[in-house]
Write a structure and sequence with these properties.
The complex is a heterodimer of chains A (495) and B (183).
Chain A lengths: L2 H4 L6 H10 L11 H35 L4 H8 L3 H5 L15 H7 L6 H28 L5 H5 L16 E5 L3 E6 L3 E8 L2 E8 L7 E6 L7 H7 L1 H5 L1 E10 L2 E9 L9 E10 L1 E10 H4 L3 H10 L1 E2 H7 L5 E3 L28 E5 L3 E6 L3 E7 L5 E6 L7 E6 L7 H6 L2 H5 L1 E10 L2 E11 L6 E10 L3 E8 L1 H17 L1 E2 L2
Antiparallel strand pairs in A: 1-2, 2-10, 3-4, 4-5, 5-9, 6-7, 7-8, 8-9, 11-12, 12-13, 13-21, 14-15, 15-16, 16-20, 17-18, 18-19, 19-20
Chain B lengths: L12 H20 L3 H17 L8 H24 L6 H6 L9 H20 L2 H12 L4 H8 L3 H28 L1
The chains are: A alpha+beta (495), B mainly alpha (183).
Chain lengths: 495, 183
């Protein structure tokens, strides 16, 4: 144990851990502090656990998708691992490792085939096993109506057998200069490219080999409307356009086309949804899956779609006055600490209409029947904007843009005058758009009027410090918390 | 622990198999593939192959592990083929000497692995509350105040508990180092 280790106390243990965790894990000095080693190893153990948990969740997802399509179970697995059936279930013979490796399957079929005992033997065994594998589930299904035996015994029991949709897991965020989108944390980005027909293309898939995908294309500016872009889309023209619809997310109207790719010209039956928006910069989002799996992924697709945020339009909107948005799906995907695994998208149904307020510092949505009662620049805060249900209401939401400081959101909350003065009822954490907020609820007693109020204060300081507070008389507080949460979830700091 | 959110009872055979061998298979894959994401993908593919296998259920535990290793090995080979894009390469040789440019010496890797395994063993022997606090601090990245709020305890209590746990685990390293030096 060295001297630095001895300085570890109950007062600084949390900060020391944070310090060690922020150190690079590589290039560990030979005489590295023991505590550093413990912290590093603990982090590695828990990180490994986390990844194993995620892998298990993915396995379950795959199996769920399989269960939803019992009849086509072998087809799905062949998509997931195309090289698998050929030889992976069997130990490979040594000779196969020296074969030419690119496009192995197709090249092999083109090569002259020489019969000899080394190829014939394993080939026969593989054929018998494949035959047994494919024939057995079909036979049992025909006899009993359900797959039985080995296959069923290996299907995780925790997975509902009749599950037809893929649940939306934790989300993570991808951000580029053009847009921000959230996607399931167990998905992967399979392609990011620039140039060609698009300014940028980003592709997301559940796994590198999955047939399910989401493509996002940023188009160069052009004079075509979203409708025209949709009808000119190559995929739409190749397939059968089943229907078109319109939807608005975050002030951006999208034209969406559902495309069926079934037919002799397509190697595999597929379904697409292609969406175009053209406000400033044109965007194309494409959701694709094989026909049998498309519906199962609809909720994931919708969640991703709703989370899409165009950066160029955000900048253009920053100078706009409040506008009425007819139907808005909140862009937030709050991940409260109490339930980190689930996405709890705030329901917009309780708030009839939403307005958007944008300034140089932030953008926020608020109920359309509320009013802005005060906008102050300078003073204690760089800017304060106050919203109330009516000009004379005792309820208000203040959005405060604080001056730059290095305080954590924890400390901002702790040093907040209301929190210091009042009786703290509870604290919590929440993350919206990758911005972590510390939230505290306090009870305040006005010493002059003798009236009490309940105040919810949310602080964040990721790139810039913000404080958003809801104040209401205790009897009315609960009635307004949902409005407040929706506002908080919609808050977006200016880039 | 990573099984914490899962039911202990009523686990399927494949889940038991995963609990028992996933970590080893994952490490095996990771020895050859440095990309975390790709290693994760291969791990998933190995166990999907296990679910698909018509023969695996008939094997005993050791044979099942050997089977998983073989599939993992084949997956790694496939991966290397895709990534390296050599028209022809003796992959047997490649697998025999995968660490030609390895920056980690075998001794260092073994010592680190032993340390981690020792730590893991002692972690599981800690009282439930200590395990929970360590999980929340290192696994979920919560600060002590947040852990205190979650567990309905004071910040000071959580800090003390964390300090005690770290000191205990830190002492293990000292003991382990001495034992290693003394042979």
């Amino acid at each position: 144990m060295d001297r630095d280790d001895e300085t570890l106390t109950a007062e600084n243990v949390d900060e020391q851990i944070e310090h060690y965790l922020s150190q690079p894990q590589t290039s560990l000095p030979y005489n590295a502090k023991t505590t550093f080693l413990v912290v590093r190893d603990l982090q590695s153990i828990y990180a490994e656990n986390h990844r194993l948990e995620q892998a298990w969740a993915r396995i379950n997802n795959h199996v769920s998708a399989l269960n939803a399509n019992n009849n086509s179970i072998s087809e799905e697995l062949s998509i997931i691992q195309p090289a698998q059936e050929e030889k992976k279930a069997l130990p490979t013979s040594g000779s196969i490792f020296s074969l030419p490796v690119r496009h192995r399957a197709s090249k092999r079929s083109q090569q002259p085939f020489h019969w000899n005992w080394r190829t014939l033997g394993p080939g026969l065994v593989a054929a018998m096993i494949l035959l047994a594998f494919f024939a057995w589930p079909i036979a049992t299904y025909a006899l009993y109506g359900t797959p039985i035996g080995i296959l069923q015994s290996f299907i995780p029991k925790g997975t509902p057998q009749n599950r037809s949709t893929v649940g939306v897991p934790d989300m993570k965020e991808y951000s580029s200069q053009y847009f921000t989108i959230q996607y399931p944390s167990n998905w992967v980005i399979t392609s990011v490219s620039a140039g060609g027909s698009y300014l940028q293309t980003v592709q997301f898939r559940p796994s590198a080999t999955s047939t399910i995908f989401v493509n996002i294309n940023v188009l160069p500016a052009n004079g075509s409307s979203a409708d025209q872009l949709l009808h000119m889309d190559p995929d739409v023209r190749l397939g059968t356009l089943l229907r078109t619809s319109s939807i608005t997310y975050h002030d951006i109207p999208w034209t969406v086309g559902s495309v069926d790719l079934t037919g002799p010209s397509h190697t595999q039956a597929g379904k697409l949804e292609v969406a175009y928006a053209h406000q400033g910069t044109p965007y194309r989002i494409e959701f694709g899956a094989t026909t049998d799996k498309f519906n199962a992924y609809t909720s994931v697709f919708n969640t991703m779609f709703a989370s899409f945020y165009a950066h160029t339009t955000a900048v253009a909107r920053a100078t706009a006055k409040p506008t009425i948005v007819p139907s808005v799906t909140p862009m937030a995907t709050p991940t409260g600490i109490a339930t980190p695994a689930a996405i709890a998208t705030p329901s917009p149904t309780t708030i009839a209409d939403i307005k958007v307020y944008s300034s140089q510092y932030f953008t926020i949505q608020y109920p359309s029947n509320w009013v802005i009662t005060n906008v102050t620049t300078g003073g204690t805060y760089q800017q304060t904007v106050q919203f109330r249900p009516s000009a004379t209401s005792a309820v208000f939401v203040n959005v405060n843009v604080m001056y730059h400081n290095d305080l954590s959101s924890d400390l901002l909350l702790l040093t907040d005058p209301d929190v210091q003065l009042g009786t703290q009822l509870k604290t919590s954490s929440v993350t919206y758009h990758s911005i972590p907020w510390r939230v505290g609820i306090v009870n305040l007693l006005d010493s002059v009027s003798g009236q009490s109020s309940e105040v919810e204060v949310a602080c964040s300081n990721q790139n810039a410090p913000y404080k958003i507070e809801l104040s209401a008389p205790p009897a009315m507080f609960n009635a307004y918390t949902q409005s407040f949460n929706t506002m908080l979830a919609s808050f977006y700091p200016a880039s | 622990m990573y099984q914490r959110q899962r039911q202990i009872l009523d686990r399927s055979p494949v889940e038991k198999l995963y609990d028992k061998h996933a970590r080893d298979i994952f490490r095996y894959i990771h020895r050859y593939i440095f990309s975390n994401e790709d290693a994760d993908d291969l791990l998933v593919e190995v166990f999907l192959a296990a679910i698909q296998s018509p023969t695996l259920a008939t094997l005993n535990m050791e044979e099942q592990f050997a089977w998983l290793q073989r599939v993992a090995r084949n997956k790694v080979v496939d991966y290397q083929r895709r990534v390296t894009r050599y028209p022809a390469v003796a992959l047997d040789e490649m697998l025999d000497s995968p660490f030609d440019t390895d920056l980690i010496t075998p001794e260092k890797a073994i010592v680190e692995r032993e340390e981690v395994e020792l730590l893991r063993t002692h972690l599981s022997a800690l009282p439930e509350l200590q395990q929970q606090v360590l999980q929340l601090r290192f696994g979920d990245g919560l600060r002590t105040k947040e852990i205190a709020s979650r567990l309905n305890k004071s910040d000071g209590a959580i800090r003390s508990l964390l300090l005690r746990s770290l000191n205990l685990l830190r002492d293990l390293y000292g003991t382990y180092d001495k034992e290693r030096i003394n042979g």
